[in-house]
Amino acid sequence: MSEAIQEPVVEQTDESLELEVGSKVSEDVPTTSKVEDAPAEIEKLFVNYLDVDLFDDIRKVSIEELLHSEVTEEVPQEEQDRYLSTFSDISEREIITGRVIGMNENEILIDIGFKSEGIIKRDEFAEDALPSVGEKLDVYLEKMEDESGKTVLSKEKADFLRRWTKLREVHETGEIISGRIVRRIKGGMVVDLDGVQAFLPGSQIDVRPVKDFDKYIDTDMDLRVVKFNEFRKNVVVSHKAILEESLAVQRDELFNKLEIGSIMEGRVKNITDFGVFVDLGGIDGLLHITDLSWGRVNHPSELIDLDDTLTVKIIDFDKDKKRVSLGLKQLTPHPWENVEESYPEGTKISGKIVSMTNYGSFIEIEPGIEGLIHVSEMSWTQHVKNPSEMFSLGDEIEAIVLAVDTEERKISLGVKQLQADPWDQIEEKYIVGTVVKGKIINVTQFGAFVELEDGIDGLIHVSDLSWTKIVRHPKEIIEKGKEVEVRVLEVSRDNRRIALGLKQIKDDPWPELVKQFETGKEVEGDVVRVLDKGIILMLDHDVEGIIPFDRQTKRQRKALPLKYKPGQKISSVVMEVRPEDKKVILFLEELSNNKPSKKDDIQDYLNNQESPAAEKIEIPTEANEETESDIEAAEE
Q1: Nearest in space to 28 (alpha carbons), one of 45, 51, 48
Q2: Would the pLDDT of 241 be above 70?
Q3: What residues form DSSP beta bridges with 190?
Q4: At what angle do helices 39-49 and 14-24 cross, to 10 degrees?
Q5: Among 536, 459, 454, which Cα is nearest to 492's?
Q6: For the chain, which terminus, N or C, has the lower number of CB atoms within 10 Å?
Q7: Kind plus residue range of the DSSP H or E element containing 537
Q8: Rg (the chain; Cα; Å)
Q9: Rounded-to-10 torsion of CA 298, 302, 303, 304
Q10: Residue 415: pLDDT above 90?
Q11: CA end-to-end span of the chain, whole Å?
Q12: Residues 6 or more apart from 624 whose CB is under 8 A from it?
């Protein structure tokens, strides 16, 4: 409207004006005339022409009318749609359709209806699968404009996004899809789902454990999407889920047919420490290790291998929990049914040591039947403290059946019974009083053990080592590993003991020593130790003498060790000889208030000497006990 009220501005050349005017006023103006020749006439004619023809059908509108008028003009819908179609509704990160309009060495040009063409890198296409010019493609719009102002597209991302959307729908609906296993990784396989890689765990390949994963590479497999992580772009698939669905129907049918005691055939699908899982054709049954054999089984793999076909017995099942307990040993009779007839007492058997304890060894006579060899039944002569001294686990040995208890299912065995008991003839072989030779094999506080022959030992008690010397430990007289001559003092077949004596090789010297150490005789000896009760001296012939303290006060007795020291020689008088105690009682004048000088006076002194009970000198009847207490007191 505004254009209609403006005056036209005409800028024309002389030539154009001549042609235009000539076409309109040819009747009044010769065509051969020029404007230069008649400018006034032409101008007049042109103005008259505009006034008459050009503005006859135009309505003139003033500015005020234009501002205050309300003009409503409806546009047809067809015109609106055609107008809106000229605009492109395009945004980044979505799939759009474009048309190939060209390509070069590195890029493919795509027209997507935007102000500029989009580009796709040529390496997104295989050389033998390049699109042709004019072909329409679904592409992914990465950037409207990059640094150089180009619109960046991607065919690969478009395919991935389209496939990803499809996988989301498959996961939601539970649809089964097909994928190709491309390679193996830790824990499973990588599957190509038409451009999207998914993870197939090893445990989800089959209902049975898979041994060889490589055989699945480059093979197609039906799968179900079991995990779909939109954020991490992570997809987990399973083939086992599909198999289990098909097995569920079979499982229900089998459970309806199961009966306790029925016998079925199955295949071993897994072996564990506690048993074997057997596939019964849709149902997995557990064959516990205790139901494999009547005998001892340390691990199921000792008897069964993976994929073995077994005939088993249904011993129990739970339909609600879908559990089945199987038995293999139940197909054979219990071995203890006729054990008394098969292994009566005195039967010689052979078997393998299957278990060892501190009290004996268990021997497997046959599967399901074991016997115990107690440590006391392993040797006639050797004192066995642990079976490991005689045997090792897995040893094949022979034994004799000693007793059978069918109620407790116990069999007592013996090994030593395979040989004669050497103690049966021991009293005839080692007669009391005879002198024998042996080797010192052990020395203890109370004596020494002498090996007389293989398995036969005798004991020399500490009191039988010396006639005169008070032996505080056997090692003072004898040494381990040395050979000695000893006299047989006692033999007990029932107690299996032989008492030996070393001092008995020689005669008892005390009858002569009594004469040598007569009462009143002055003798000299070396101080061995000073005790609370007296001073111990070492006299001739390894005889110990004791000078008892008389009426010494405690203070005087404490001072005596400073006056009398070990190794110091002292002369004293013999007061009494006691062979049973291996002691000679001596008298030292300076330690007594009474001073007997003659033999008779000394005897009278001994007979009449009376002291308070607390001050009496006691010589115990057992010299060994007195000596040990004296040593402890001296050391303290």
Answers
A1: 45
A2: yes
A3: 183, 199
A4: 60
A5: 459
A6: C
A7: strand 534-538
A8: 62
A9: 110
A10: yes
A11: 139
A12: 462, 463, 470, 471
Would you state the structure tokens that stand for residue 49, as one six-digit string?
């022409």
- Which string of DSSP letters, residue by residue, matches 470-500? --SSGGGT--TT-EEEEEEEEEETTTTEEEE
For the chain, give the longest Cα–Cα distance: 207
Alpha-carbon gap, residue 602 to 611, rounded angstroms: 16
- For 566-605, b/e burial (b = at least 16 CB within 10 A) is eeeebebbbbebebebbbbbbbbeebbeeebeeeeebeeb
Residue 314, phi then psi, degrees to nearest 5: -80, 115
- In order of their start, the domains of the chain are 3-54 (no CATH), 174-243 (2.40.50.140), 258-331 (2.40.50.140), 335-418 (2.40.50.140), 422-505 (2.40.50.140), 510-635 (2.40.50.140)
- DSSP, collapsed to helix, strand or coil, labels residue 399 as strand
CB of 577 closer than 8 Å to CB of 539 = no
Q: Which residues contact 93 (CB under 8 A, 6 or more apart)?
A: 140, 141, 142
Residue 330 scores a pLDDT above 80: yes
E strands along 17-105, which residues? 95-103
CB within 8 Å of 619: residues ≥ 6 apart: 546, 578, 581, 583, 585, 626
- DSSP letters, 116-158, are S-EEEEGGGS-GGGPPPTT-EEEEEEEES--TTSPEEEEHHHH
What is the sign, positive or negative, of the torsion defined by CA atoms of 513, 514, 520, 525?
positive
Instruction: Locate 316 and state its tokens.
Output: 């129990």
pLDDT tens sequence across 434-460: 899 899 989 999 999 998 888 788 999
What is the amino acid identity at position 459?
Answer: L
Phi, psi for 561 (deg, rounded to 5) = -60, -20
Q: What is the pLDDT of residues 342-394, one digit of tens each?
A: 899 999 999 999 999 999 999 999 888 899 999 999 988 778 889 998 999 99
Which of 118-124's residues contact partners 24+ apart within 8 Å by CB, and which partners? 118/150, 118/151, 118/152, 118/153, 119/150, 119/151, 119/152, 119/153, 120/153, 120/154, 120/155, 121/154, 124/154, 124/155, 124/156
Cα–Cα distance, 459 to 461 (Å, whole number): 6
pTM of the model: 0.42
Q: Give the three-class secondary structure for 288.
A: strand
Output the CA torsion sign for 516, 522, 523, 528: positive
Contact call for residues 144 and 92 (beta carbons, < 8 A): yes
pLDDT at 273: 92
Which residues in 186-254 belong to E strands, given as ranges? 188-193, 196-201, 220-229, 234-238
Residue reference for tokens 């020291």: 565
| Tokens read off for 390 | 């005689």
CB 592 within 8 A of CB 602: no
Q: Are 259 and 314 in contact (CB under 8 A)?
A: yes
How many Cα atoms are found within 13 Å in the side-chain-facing hemisphere of 142? Answer: 16
> Residue 546 and residue 572: Cα distance in Å, rounded?
10
Residue 160 phi/psi, 5-degree rounding, is -65, -45
Q: Computed from CA positions of residues 347, 351, 353, 354, in that sequence, does the dihedral angle turn out positive or negative? A: negative
